[in-house]
Structures are given as C-alpha cells and as structure tokens.
Design a protein that fits this description.
The protein contains eleven helices and 16 strands. With 335 residues, it is an alpha/beta fold.
Length: 335
Amino acid sequence: MSALDDLAKELEKAIGANSDKQAVTNFIDTGFPPLNKIVSGDFSNGLPQGRLMEMYGPSSSGKTAIATKWMIQAQQQGGVAGFMDHERSFDVDLAKSMGLTDEFPFWIYKRPRTWEESNMLMAKAAEIIRKSGKFAPDAPILFVFDSIAAALPKSTVEKEIDEYNMNDTTALARVTSTTLKSIAQYAEDHNFTVLYLNQIRTKPGVVYGDPTTTPGGGAMEFYATTRIALGRKKIMEERGGEKVFIGQEITMKTVKNKLTRPFQEVSFRMMFDDNGNASFDVTGSTVDWLVQKGKLASSGPRVTWIDGKQYFKKALVAHIESTGQQAELVKLCQT
C-alpha cells in the first residue's frame, strides 16, 4: 500500500469521500440543437437541471414564449413545469395552443405577491414532488419566474405607495443577494431548474461600453450558471402593397456559462400566424445553421439533403417534417 493510499484513507475518515455531484448530468432539451450546444456543450443536452439560469432582453423579444417552449419540453420529458407570474400577464390558453399541459401537478401556476413568497412556494413544491416518488428522480422540474424586474420584495409590498423612499429602489437587489444563494442550494438538493426572466434598462450617462443593465442587482451574475441575452430583428412581408409583421429572428447569446465556452450565439425564427399565435421554426432555423456551418451543401436557394436531392429551403423543411426526419438534423449537427 502506497503512502498516497494511506493519505486517502486518512482523509476519507476525517472528511468523508468526494461528493457525488461533480458535474451536471441531467438536462432539459430546448428542442433546438444549436442552442443546446452553446448552453450545455452538447447538441443533445440543453438546460442544466439543478441550476439557476437568467434570460433577459428588450420588450417583446420572445422571453415568455421561449420559456413556454422550454416548459413544454420539460413536460414532454416526463417532468413538471411551474410559472411564477409576477407580471400578471401569462396567457395559459396561448401556452396550451403551443402544446403546454395545464393539468395539475404537471403544471403549477402561481401569482405570488412577493419575491420571497415566490421562492418559498417553488422550493416547497420541488421538495414535495421529489419526495413523493411519483416522478422519475431525473425527471425535469422547470420553474420560470416572470420576471425579476416585476417582483416585489416583502419590505416594499407592505407599504403604501406614497410611503416609498430611496431605500426601496435598492430593496430588490438586496433581497436577491440574500435569497439566491439559498435557492441555488435548493435547486441542487432537489434537482430542479430555475429560469429567471428579466428585462433590460439603460444606464444614464454611459458614453463608452454597453449602456444596458438588468434590474435586481448583480446577484444573478454570480449565482446563475448560464445567462442568456436576447436580441431581435423583425421579419416583415409585403402584403397588398404594405409591409406586415409576421415574425422575428431572435438571437440568443450566452453572456455567462459555467458549462461550456461562453459568448456564443445562435439565431432562430419565431413566426406568427394570422390569428397571432406564435410558433418556432426550429426545423428551418436548424437547416439555416447547418448551411451556415457547411454541414449541408447549398447552391443558391437550393439545399442538398442527405438523400442527395436538392430542395428549396421551404420544400426541404416540409419534407423533413412530413417524413419525421428531425433526428437526422441532430446527427448532422454532431458531424
């Protein structure tokens, strides 16, 4: 027996063996392989379970719609989706049209009055779900907070409106700083993912550098495993001599990431039908990414598919979806 073996035994006796969890092993598939890659480092993974995340962007950049898509993915993987509606603006019928199951307890929807209540309800629900044994131990539990900017600390909600003072402007930053460290521990203990949505603000007087900031102080920058910044570009279509808004191209950039290389970005399209219902063009966006990366050959507007035939992009997307070949897109991403 070597001296190192003796040391290992002595250490194990004194402090115990190494903790089991040394890396994230369970993920929630986002449904968009290139996004999985920049978030988790693997085209087949996605959002890390047991961690905190933040996604922020300008108004109408698709934050809630994207979060809804991910909640649907969590349910489809046999798990639970929860939504803490601080903005009082979630439309469950719209979410159901996208594929969300609103049956309790697969769907948990709360309208908490305070930031503290919201976190308490989430932690309690996750603990009960895990201890029940009714779901697989690795089944996703995804809670979405919408949003940090709209959340009220308990210290301010108990006041009358005319009683607010300058100290109340920093109350949210103080309470996030004190609670997020505990939530990060709860998330790991009970293997659930927390996605905090946030808005952006413009810092006055900034001449050089990025003038934008996010409400809630700097705590999220420390405790979030991944922070995703959104950008958007309108997609317009000519109809009857006028331009009509039909969708937007959303860019997602990982401005912080503890799982893989940060500062990567991908884009995909969110389209609206004539009734205003949103859908994500995952197949078409993945084809665009594959062409951009040279994994699918293209000649002008035509793209060569794995069957050797050339298709216009719209026709190729229809062909892939009608024949159920989405799995082939993931394989191509991984080549």
